[in-house]
Design goal:
The structure is a homotetramer. Chain A is of the alpha+beta class and about 475 residues long. In chain A, about 50% of the residues lie in helices and about 15% in strands. Chain A has 16 helices and 14 strands. In chain A, the strands form 4 sheets. Chain A has a 6-stranded mixed sheet, with no helix packed on it. In chain A, strands 5-8-9-12 form a 4-stranded mixed sheet. A two-stranded antiparallel ribbon of chain A has the order 3-4. The radius of gyration of chain A is 24 Å and the shape is globular. Chains B and D meet through α8 of B and α8 of D.
Chain lengths: ~475, ~475, ~475, ~475
């Protein structure tokens, strides 16, 4: 099969999976008014790989080195800077081309790449072989995947083994001849409801007495014992929104409950090796923060663009204080871009696999996350209060009110009033809506909190080399 | 009448006013599914003045100095620090008592107080008498008022007289024997759709050739020629939200179109005195920023409280980095409170009227607005990603999923899982919802942008005294 | 005696005290080329109390409530807001009048006020009486005092009792019939070398097994066993500096070694009451941070003034980005002033003694310290690189070079070139010199580090009230 | 000659140059107590090129492509990323190897590279040839060079032609058969007093009527009519400083007066082409900001190292809030490094010359400059107040006081007290001394102010591409 069509993808989701939304069991995710938006968003990934535009196709498709068949480039294990750069470009382009992130293979392959690195570092040939076979499997099936990492965690001041019950972190409850049985719950799982496969890794370092929590595996999303509970997100374009240039794209998130789920041994990639749990968590984090900064680029470009265009539509793009704010916005966006490129250019090699530079990738993520709220403040500031008080498209379509809107809501003569209102609608969407609020929180928490990034920066930055320079200047030995 | 009941207030809104929402003319604002939330919010103001609790009644009611009748304290023209402190406390308390801001008399009296100051500064006895009479009128009718200040503005790089059409700023189009006729549109008018009276003042300094734009007046909200176009805001509690401890309170905003509206002379407070337009705009700003910082206090206390309680419910309130963030949150909130008190304590006296200290009030507003996004980031950070991904109350009420939620969404044992989820719901509301997004933008733009505050700080701060100190130390004459 | 003259003060310092500077024992601090600058600075305190200007005299002098004699207002134990405001004003005025801070009685009385509060809280009549007698003593002798609080501390991760030796924190080594013997070293003691009296309090909370470290007392600066080691600071005006409008004023700091120093019981204010060590440290901190914010005000006004005047001398005071920076500078300065006033207005009363509001005083100090570097950056930015590269006054006085300087170093025609250079000299002094660098570090560390302020903010801010608001909105009980 | 020895360099400076310092004419810069420190600093450049260590030699020396002779790598016109990386590494290494920046060829070649780019862009073969010949000349003579760019500027609100006199910007006063005569003054010229050659370029865009100000040329430092007035900087190690591991290195700055200086035509690279003045200024800025960020790297590493080592010596490197600050310090340093690498990797090619990426170089400089004061605050914070109050080395050497210092100034047992004091001395030097204060101001102003960087970011960042993304999403045409 190798490359699937959007329709094949849709069909594959009608597989008996157990999904809940707003208190009801979802019969068919592809038909659910909210979830189908997420389905169509991920379906774009399959649309892109069947593009007729050779440049796009070359970016999103590559020939399987074993079979020669065309497969999704997400399934290419990165071997060098060029592979990382292509992956980053593919992620960013997919947003620019479709208006949203078809998050169907990103996180899952971040997990799988980390699994491969750790299997190699363990020197465990069995795990290496299983991971390789699993890669063959998803290549062959062109699987949509999600990664399930964050546990429920309970009381955050306590380790897994000291919680009120043992299930706050996912763990092995039974080892059988053919496989293991796991129990637990993974939180905030992006694209879980619309994935074919779930790949699970530990969320943190485990200790010697927490071997059962050091577990990694892959499983189909419709496996018995799996229940997903979703939160409603952005739905389709409404009649009161001014039209936009592209359909609404959005992601779905879910808490994914594993209620005594059986996993066959051939899909188990870690089981008890607690000493490697932190390496797996950190390696995943490096791959995934690189994914994160790659997909954030077109988003912050778009948001900055709302600010630039709103300043123009207000006639203020030459005002001194506005220019100062535009410069700050640009510096925020372009620093993110430069750091993302730098993370690809200085990878760490692990047995033939190129991991994005963890120090640079974490700094880039920290730059993004710590500066985002200030960036948004700048865009809101240059745009004006109108982005949260403008009348709706239905008022525009009502002859009683359209004239007033036409007369009073104009700005610079570079834009018609309707163009300005459409721009206001976009700026509202990205900086003043429920979607924006959701994005603000995920900026802080998705792909690891800022504290997680600081922890990795402390580990990766050459602090002792700095200290040695100081000691050398002080004429003292280290 | 003097003090009205909530029901009298509701009834007064069924007055033929011309309101549009989502493309439809609203027949009765008190019955409209969205607008009635705003109606009920403002109705709280009338409930508070009929409170049986003497402490509350003493705060919200005071005896009219002319008639001896009990009237709303909002109608007390401030004469000293104590009056300003009471006004500030009344505003803050109304939120703490009702769960929202009954914004029925705040902005309107800010406008009227400014009108009185400027009439006095002009030395115009006629205007002074009209303002006094209008005060008597609103006292007697216990009117809900809105203030209408911000114009449509068109191309912001151009003054009123250079715009594509003359109506981007509200102006006098005719002067008649009995009154004036005005045309224009005021934007972002909070509580416009649920007010009895609209009081209008200029938004900026006008120049000599812009005398027609230097106009201030009061008018009933249902006057002929007035059309309001609303944007849908927060509605009532939904079935998918975890219950809260108080009904939803919210404000409504509207663009208010004045389409050749007649205003009788006895309601005109400025007409052509362009030299005083800036004084009126600035005096209003000082009163209104004081109102703003007063009502922001309980809101940021509540939001900080979400952060504190979420940290507890996560079991993290003792963690070093969390404590550092809680200290920053507290410093943000308490600095706002200390500056608000300081603004009341050093008022500027204008002919018997106490205006909140403009330098301190503007700094307090700038502190609030410039630090808000960072404050929110701290609260989101200590709360966790769950505030934007948690399942809904309907899932909690579904037996299929409740057990999983109960089992996996617990935290510290100081809270039951349901309590934690209710807390998450509140934290979502204030930091991760459409309401939050709206509040973020209004933080930047409502009551004047940060640039407006900087401009007033430059005017009010003793920069030349600083320079004189430097020159004196340098041994040079000023 | 009650009020001394500057000359009496100078004479009192020739008392055999044991002071070291640059490797040499100082024979007479009043004659030492560096230390005499500090002597003359503190001597200003005595000049101010003998001022003929009634307004100044009324500010700096007050009648002893017991003797009726005129004494320094520093010796007035604050009983209310007015006392605190006067104290604050006196501190700020002393800098404006003399060009520097005559730090002769500020810290010492901060210590003594804290000692009095704690004696009262302990309910220890003996200590109360001793403190009262000591107050009589310093009033009568018009003593210059320093406060000695910060210990050497050794390894900061360890408490006093776990250090490599017992002396890293000052402690009682012997209790005798007539008094105690103490050993230790107090660090960074401002005005130690030019004080008559030293008053010692603990730097932190002590634990049950650290009773010997819970010690507070007063002692003359020339007592046997005391050695002070100074660091060279700013000396007198040099020939290469452009003249200034006032003599150089500066403070001296020293490490003060207590090498088995005997203290008579009548000067001991705490000895073993470890439970009250934290209260003493915190009460001192509240008084002292209020002193700190009071004396910082005229300094930051002066520095801001350098920026304002430099912007003028560069012809740039109207440029948009410069105005934005001036507004930020003004907001920094005026927020400090407003918070300082607020700390005086809401004091905490302890048995008749008014302690500045600890929450507000700590926020003010944190505002000052956390924003100072940014404030300096703004001033440096608006001033230009010339403040660190300008030729010297000696070049100005050399006919070979003066013409070039006159021709090329002019700016706006509001200033002569010489005036501009004098202004540059002042701006250099306050933002680009060794003095500035010293001040930057003391901003961070003097009167407690920012972590100390955050700790007190966490203790004093109503975090649980915030949380209760959130819980109430969530409909859950505390 | 091609490569000179340090002694040949020193000798070349005894050439009759006209230098003033502290009001006196300097007879011999190599013998002057202050200037010789700068001489010896630059002499390190010549020591490095004669290194016997092949790795160092390969870095600092390369074979002249025309003569095959070994020459300084600074004279290699960059043709690609590798050349830029080598140049950056050479600059950073020179500090790490010598303890300071031997600023002998950096700025001068930044100017010359910009001259070459602009000659090419003008399509002016004569200028191209002259620049090439000048490159041959400095290669052959191994010249120490300075770049002279910043003018005196007078009233900054006025262009060159509107100043009080015509000389506030350097300009051509006469064009003769053999050359031109120029008049003016260049400010803050680093290494001017110790350079062999001065290369001059315009500091800003010139207008059509300012052709005489659009002038660029090279001239020996001892040319007739040139006078330099220096400001005293850091001198040699003093007896009161604890010893350091390397001699003091420092730079000298001067105002350089051109008093009717004759420049032969073969050294003139621009004369009247005002249309290209901005291109020259901006191209220089791109090269020079790359130099700046390259040399800042080892400096901020060293300063961060002081913080890391001080935290260790205080026993606090594991404390939560200290770790948070170390992470921020590391992120600051490593972001600078990553952006510097990125600026080299995406150069802009101009006729065979690789210019560092102007957007990235400017963002890196802005990152450095805007964050420096905060970075210093962090280092001061983790180091403690001792860095500005510690007794001197002379006290350490005095037996009366050494014992006290030994006993009380210890910290963590990882360091002896003397080691801790040496470390404190270094930390003082880099964060609490006159040198630090100077560096703080040069951070803001050297290599262009932050406003200059923002201006270039606005020019270089794809703002209109951002806006197009927004317009595309809004469904409107650009």
């Amino acid at each position: 099969m190798a490359l699937r069509t959007p329709e094949e993808y849709r069909k594959s989701l009608r597989d008996g999976r157990r999904i809940y939304m707003l208190g009801e069991k979802v019969a068919d995710v592809t038909a659910h008014p909210l979830l189908k938006v997420a389905v169509e968003t991920v379906a774009q990934d399959f649309a892109l790989t069947e593009s007729n535009d050779p440049e796009i196709r070359n970016l999103f498709v590559f020939p399987d080195n074993e079979t020669g068949e065309p497969i999704s480039r997400f399934f290419k294990t990165p071997e060098n800077t060029a592979d990382l750069e292509k992956r980053s470009e593919m992620i960013a382009r997919s947003i620019r081309l479709t208006g949203g992130l078809p998050f169907g293979k990103d996180v899952g392959t971040d997990c799988l790449n980390a699994v491969m690195v750790v299997a190699d570092q363990m020197g465990n040939e069995e795990y290496k072989e299983r991971a390789k076979n699993y890669l063959r499997f998803i290549r062959k099936n062109d699987s949509a995947m999600c990664g399930a990492v964050t546990d429920a965690k309970g009381d955050r001041s306590k380790p897994p083994s000291k919680q009120a019950h043992p299930d706050y972190y996912l763990h092995v409850v039974d080892k059988q001849k053919d496989g293991i049985v796991v129990k637990g719950c993974k939180m905030h799982i992006t694209s879980g409801p619309v994935a074919n496969e779930i790949i699970v890794t530990p969320t943190r370092q485990m200790r010697e007495d927490e071997g059962d929590y050091a577990v990694s595996f892959a499983i189909p999303a419709n496996a018995e014992g799996i229940t997903m509970i979703c939160r409603p997100g952005r739905g389709e374009q409404t009649p009161y929104e001014f039209p936009s240039g592209a359909p609404v794209r959005t992601l779905s998130e879910a808490m994914v409950v594993f209620d005594n789920v059986f996993v066959p041994w051939e899909r188990v990639f870690m089981c008890g090796e607690w000493q490697f749990s932190m390496l797996l968590a950190y390696t995943f984090a490096s791959f995934h923060r690189f994914t994160a900064i790659s997909y954030k680029i077109p988003i912050v470009e778009l948001i900055a663009g709302c600010g630039v265009a709103m300043a123009e539509s207000n006639g203020l793009e030459k005002a001194g204080h506005i220019r100062g704010k535009l410069a700050q916005m640009a510096a925020y966006v372009e620093t993110l871009k430069a750091l993302t490129r730098a993370a690809a250019r200085d990878p760490i090699m692990y047995g033939g696999i190129a991991m994005p530079n963890p120090l640079v990738a974490n700094m880039a993520k920290l730059h993004f996350a710590s500066g985002y709220h200030n960036f948004i403040q700048l865009v809101q500031d240059v745009s004006g209060g109108i982005i949260t008080t403008f009348p709706t498209y239905e008022d525009w379509n009502n002859p009683d009110t359209r004239g007033f809107m036409e007369h009073y809501l104009g700005g610079s003569d570079k834009f018609t009033t309707e163009e300005r209102l459409r721009l206001i609608q976009q700026t509202h969407r990205w900086t003043a809506s429920a979607e924006h609020a959701h994005m603000e929180v995920t900026t802080v928490h998705a792909e690891g909190s800022m504290e997680a990034q600081k922890m990795m920066i402390l580990l990766e930055a050459p602090l002792s080399e700095y200290a040695n320079l100081a000691k050398q200047m002080a004429g003292i030995s280290g």
